[in-house]
Design goal:
Elements: E1 2-8, H1 14-30, E2 36-42, E3 46-47, E4 55-56, E5 69-72, H2 89-100, E6 104-108, H3 111-117, E7 125-126, H4 133-139, E8 144-145, E9 151-154, E10 157-160, H5 165-178, H6 180-189, H7 205-208, H8 215-227, H9 234-241, H10 245-256, H11 260-277, H12 282-288, H13 294-303
Parallel strand pairs: 1-2, 1-5, 5-6, 6-10, 7-8
Antiparallel strand pairs: 3-4, 9-10
């Protein structure tokens, strides 16, 4: 029986906790040979959360074995609430001791600061939420902060970006222990669209180019997001936005810095990268995202600095 021990810190984000907990709970229910037992510990019985729903935990740590995982969900940063994000010296020592005894320690979002307080990030590659990366590097200069990735593993210390990326981290740990197929089964049971790779960007194309306020461009992006694998003539996109083709080209460029075609290509590249990272050949990934063959996919991946996988 493998224990997944969640260390709950005051001010924690519910999804930082619930996402990974759901992954391991689903694995225990759906996978043969995956007997996981979830436990929740804290420095106090009642733990306030950033979303206002208090959670209860035990203050007594279980006996830990090397195969167990201790995970620290993140918390809301910079609120001024006294005690939020606080990890005492005794708790930090427990984290360090578990790792020293051969165990795995993981964090989601600001949970990386708890691992850093335990000395577990010194000299190691790590990551955290993109808004906290500079602060982590400033406070802990011996940590090698890797920016704009979903999760990083270095010497049984696993750190991930913010909020929903905890699901990716937990699926990664399932894949390491039980294989990619098992992780895919868990993701499917959870209705997770795709298991993202650790080196995927924290902010995908849909988020990077959606911060504008132009309704017409958003309507066009909605169509491209839903049908990126299909041929989408500019006339059809303009009709979706309720503007002329010329006006769409001008508005789209002003709002996103891209043409509609380039935005569609970025989505295709991202989705192809997910497929290739899960073992799909370049040719099959190219066809799945709408390219006629792999040559265009390889060319675009080369232009964006992506490393083209071998067929």
């Amino acid at each position: 029986m493998t224990q997944i021990v969640f260390l709950l810190v005051p001010g924690l984000h519910l999804l930082d906790l619930a996402g990974p907990a759901q992954v391991f709970s689903t694995a225990a229910h759906n996978l043969d040979g995956a007997p996981y037992r979830l436990r929740y510990v804290a420095e106090q019985d009642d733990v306030p959360t950033a979303q206002g729903l208090p959670v209860r935990a035990t203050t007594t740590w279980p006996e830990l074995e090397p195969g167990d995982i201790v995970m620290v969900p993140g918390w809301r940063w910079g609120t001024g609430n006294p005690g939020w994000g606080r990890v005492g010296a005794a708790t930090a020592s427990r984290l360090a001791a578990h790792h020293q005894n051969g165990g795995t320690v993981a964090s989601v979002c600001a949970g990386a600061f708890a691992l850093a307080a335990a000395g577990l990030l010194d000299g190691r590659r790590c990551t955290t939420h993109h808004e906290l990366q500079d602060e982590l590097a400033r406070r802990h200069p011996r940590a090698n902060v890797v920016r704009d990735v979903l999760h990083v593993t270095d010497g049984r210390v696993v750190t991930s970006a913010g909020i929903a990326s905890g699901i990716d981290l937990a699926l990664h740990l399932i894949a390491v222990r039980h294989g990619p197929g098992a992780a895919a089964r868990v993701a499917r049971a959870m209705v997770v669209y795709a298991r993202r790779n650790g080196d995927d960007q924290q902010i995908g194309a849909m988020l990077r180019h959606r911060s504008h306020l132009n309704d017409a461009v958003h309507r066009v992006q909605d169509l491209i997001d839903a049908r990126f694998a299909e041929p989408l003539p500019l006339s059809a996109l303009a009709a979706a936005g309720g503007v002329s083709q010329r006006t769409l080209t001008r508005l789209f460029g002003a709002a996103t810095g891209l043409t509609p075609l380039r935005y569609q290509q970025l989505l295709r590249l991202e989705h192809a990268g997910h497929l290739i990272g899960q073992g799909v050949t370049v040719e099959a990934a190219a066809r799945a995202v709408g390219f006629q063959d792999a040559r265009m996919l390889r060319r675009l991946r080369s232009r964006t600095g992506a490393t083209a996988a071998r067929p």
